[in-house]
Amino acid sequence: MVKVIHPIAGTIALFMITSFWLATAMSELFAGPEAVATVKSLVLWGFLILIPALMAVGGSGFQLGKKMRGPLIAAKKQRMPFIAANGILILMPSAFYLSFKAQAGSFDTGFYVVQAVELCAGAVNIMLLGKNMRDGLRLTGNRHRKTR
Fold first, then answer.
1. Structure pTM?
2. Are 87 and 54 in contact (CB under 8 A)?
3. CA distance to 2, 23, 61, 67, 72, per residue, from 139 (Å)
4. Cβ contacts of 98 within 8 Å, gap of 6 or more
5. Cα 61 from Cα 68, distance rounded (Å)
6. H or E segment at 113?
7. Residue 111 CB contacts under 8 Å (≥ 6 apart), including other chains
8. pLDDT tens, 15-64?
9. How would you classify residue 143: left for phi > 0, otherwise alpha for psi between -120 and 50, otherwise beta?
């Protein structure tokens, strides 16, 4: 069951974070303040899907990683603390701050500084989660080849 949950939860998490990032960038570049405020509010609601997905992928990955060794597993394990810290310490507080500021119509320098930090941190997490997905696919590909 863990082997089924892990890739599904990981795909959902990567999709959600990428969606948040793209919606933010597009609304900032091509829409008005009302759209930005809507996107910022929807990102918070998206946490209701993202957080359980991240918990599932983290827990299932921890379970799967107990039994496996090798450079790909080591790389995935090395990236995970940074991904988690980036999300908990930068991305989530930024999302709440930006949503509150946008709802108040306060698009000041503080808003845009935090927005820039959030976009950079989000891009880093997308890249790291993408690498973890790539390595996971390589691992399952290697396992399928060995059993044939």
1. 0.83
2. yes
3. 15, 32, 12, 13, 7
4. 40, 111, 114, 115, 118
5. 10
6. helix 109-147
7. 98, 101, 102
8. 999 999 999 999 999 999 999 999 999 999 999 999 999 999 888 888 88
9. alpha
